[in-house]
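Quick one - first record:
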Amino acid sequence: MTEFDPTQLLQEALDRKAGGFVELRYHKKRSRALAVEKGRVETAQVTEHTGVGVRVLVDGTWGFASTDRVERASIETAVDQARAAARSSARARTERTEELPRTALARGRFESAGVRELADKPLAETLELVLKMEEEARGASAAIQSASAAYSEVFEEKGIVTSDGARAWTRLVRPEFRVSAVARKDGEIQRGSESVGATGGWDCLFRAHGPEALAERAAARAVDLLSAGYPEGGRTKVLLSPSLVGLLTHEAVGHTVEADFVRSGSIAAGKLGHRVASERVTLCDSGRSEFHDGAGGSLSVDDEGVPTGNTVIIQDGVLVSYLHDRESAARFGVAPTGNARAWEYDDAPLIRMRNTYIAPGDAELEELIASMEDGYLLDGAANGQADANGEFMFGTREAYRIVKGKKGPLLRGVNISGQAFDVLRSVDRVGREFRWDLGSGHCGKGQPAKVDAGGPWLSCAVVLGGRRA
């Protein structure tokens, strides 16, 4: 993989166009994707998107421009275009950002593990694995009607230079693998799927389960769901798995504490210093992969050149911080948290999460099950939605009734709903085991972003929906 450090070129352009605040961001994104369905190769593609994004702050107003020509003259022209855009829009601005907060900005080179490993791995070798996993899932049972498997990897290189001191070069890779199977019996159809995503090499991607185990689990779930019963609905005690804790943490809590949403009136507005969860809950968002390597949203430097540390959002049940870029930090009078992220070079940075999680406690899963008199164990995040008030509804992939500390058979058609902070207030036990479990797919907020989320098993209360058989 050819190494190119663009910071010298960006610095030269910056020096020639000095004046006011200027931010230059080189971004090269190269993607490889493979997909197989019913034994056929449906996708085998390589794409690349490279250019430079330019932001300036003029008269308290942002201006943005970009160029796909990575050369000094084109970058300098983009600076002029961004300044012209800022001046043009400044006249209509009623609110201005006069100065960005001073903060320690990143300087140096930052590379994640796995970049060279995956760049050197032949695509044909990876395709062989994808074909084999689809075949194994499809042949796992006579009830399996079809299966699919897919693998993708995104290599990203960035150079970020700002007029107030940032000069950073970063490189990382994010691989993903997914497999699904469709089972049919007596006219009824059920689907099982497994997906993993990471930042790093294959050791990170397949840390918890190898590809063979993922194919086996997807097929087994599809078949087992054909004969599964239904739960009783209503408010009930549950054990939420790390994947569901991650989904709740990201979708129903994390978005409400992004400072731009806070300023728009999310439920977290005005709640700093207030108790919003059980004292057993500490919730964080980190650019690092805490507890073990490979979290899918990991990055060393955000797209404003701010180092990404670990931001504690809820400390022992009390809301203590929002998530900020440099502009929102200036408005709130705090330091930026390193949450400014842009999907492509021609996107302006937005406030986005990275790796969001609830910190682990000290209870073993077996202990949590044994101590539950009547409730459900829920595992596997499916689809769902949440809003700025923290109201959510999520589907689950697996559910089991627990009665007097004993886990019953698999159930289907189970979804959960509620208000996220009410759920967090109800937490009475926190598990020891921690997993990142939401690294595949993308978060959407005007533009995509790679994120991850997770946590331990949580004992709490939710509204459970289902139906009687």
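second record:
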Amino acid sequence: MRRWQLCLIVSSVLFVGCGGAATPELQLIEDAAEAMGSLRAVRETTSLALEGDGQVYRLGQNERPQAELPYYEITNYSLQLDYENTRWRLSQDRTSTYLTGSPLLGARQSYGLDGEVAYDQRGEQMVRASDQVATDRWAEMYHNPIGIVLLALDETSTVSNLRDEGGRQAVDIVAGNGTSFTLAVDGATGLPHSVTSSAAHPNLGDVSVETVFTGYEEAGGLGGFQARLTLPRAYTTSVDRYTVSEYLTTTNTNATLDDLAAPAEVQGSTPMESVTVEVEEVAEGLWLLGGQSHHSAVVEFDEFLVLIEAPQSEARTLAVIARAREFQPDKPLRYVVNTHHHFDHSAGIRAAVSERLTVITHRVNRSFFEDIVSRTHSIVPDALSRSPQPLTIETVASAEPYELTDGSRVLQLFHVVDDPHAAGMIMAYLPRERVLIEVDAFSPTSQEFPFAEALLQNIVDRGLRVDTIMPLHGGLSTLEDLEAAVG
């Protein structure tokens, strides 16, 4: 009989385990440490260095809302965890495995945490991320068998609610800062099976983040008198119901780490969260709201205004809505047109609903937006949480255009048929002005144009007479620019 099993039997009778644990919950923690090698060795572990390869999935970028997620192939994965100083850094190379206008081929990505400061590397520069990102990254430190056991053993943490969940024993761990985790322990091996915590996602709201550990094998020692521990090779992390990463790793314990401290200029800076909205009047009653990477358009009718696209974030969408209302203060902003469901183009939909705008999107996206609007945002309350409003939604069919008109101006919304980027893609067309408004299908600043041919074919098949193209990434273009990109 293994030592952890003997300890568990004794603790169930005497409520005092072999490690002297005061409660059955703490006994489970100590037994998990023993199953990994020894309680003492786990307690003495102050750092971890993981290396390997894997896949990182692009949440909210699938071809249709229920489809599989596209992913990056990951090489040269390196995760360094310093539990003694509450620091970590992840570095990896990403290669796109899906169609995109800006493919990555072994592009280096690096980001991390230093105490309460989260930082990202952008080119040669380190910039500070938001406080919410820092909170989430702090929790990520403990989605690891060693990390979660160390946290549970910390005198500032509380461990409670021992229970059986599908043949596994589970306990709740509340850290000194109030963050809650659930640790599940395998009933057969006594090894940690998974760690679960909660997080705030800007699109999905309150979500469950779970990391599952598999492929345990002896690892960790660097020779000499240092103990070797039994640790997982595979880490699979899910957000909500979506798998977002899978890594196959090797682990060294108490390894010599790089300097993980955030640079001094980052420590003394504030997170960059400003929103810039730049206005360009393209035609009478037609404005491009640019600035930053994701743009919107506003179309004026006799009785109302229409916003095309609520992208990037709640903050940007609220800023765009405020600016749109400045153009014609006496006319209500009545509609928001969503071009497709991808998270970077739908992140502001909840904000638009809070402002009582009717959402127009392709019918394949209806249930997606019904779900998005109904979700709870209690960890980080958003505009819709503070000002609840019902969703009013109208949908575009694949065959016939959806039309808004006041008798003088016409705005037509067409489904972009056979677009490999998104099944429910919509383009907007103003016949009188001969202006086409689109996103992602043709972005003049892209490296490649894998979706331009589908856009051009839809223009031809619909018989549209286009002089000006308003891409919502990049600047104004012409039909000739699109044709050249296809060619």
